[in-house]
Inverse folding.
């Protein structure tokens, strides 16, 4: 039985680390409609915060003139989260495996792994204006 009708939410953030604090209230507002269980919401919070943080720190290099745009579409059976930054992007296939022995104690390098592990689908793309991460979470 469908629980929701489609809704579209947008959050535009300046490329400053303190802006990441706006992600959780944004997702809580969305969850009033989506009604994810606690486990699903926590997964969504972890990966969305990670992707936004990556966009601010690595994509836009904390340039306050650049923005990270976070959109969420709540559909009947799934959530689609889209994060776009204004940076040049990178080839995600060249990232080292964070599970490899030599990477286990590194401070960074687990974000994409977490996204792929916790979401039902994740895709990356880049163009002349920026980079995109699109993640899908099925509503259970």
């Amino acid at each position: 039985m469908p629980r929701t009708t489609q809704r579209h939410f947008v959050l535009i953030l300046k490329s400053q680390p303190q802006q990441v604090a706006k992600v959780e209230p944004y997702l809580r507002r969305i969850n009033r409609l989506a009604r994810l269980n606690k486990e699903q919401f926590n997964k969504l919070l972890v990966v969305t915060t990670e992707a936004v943080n990556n966009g601010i720190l690595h994509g836009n290099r904390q340039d306050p003139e650049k923005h990270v745009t976070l959109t969420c579409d709540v559909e009947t059976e799934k959530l689609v989260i889209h994060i776009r930054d204004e940076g040049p992007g990178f080839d995600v296939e060249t990232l080292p495996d964070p599970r490899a022995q030599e990477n286990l104690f590194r401070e960074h390098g687990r974000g994409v792994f977490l996204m792929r592990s916790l979401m039902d689908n994740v895709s990356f793309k880049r163009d002349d204006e920026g980079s995109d991460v699109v993640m899908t979470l099925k509503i259970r």
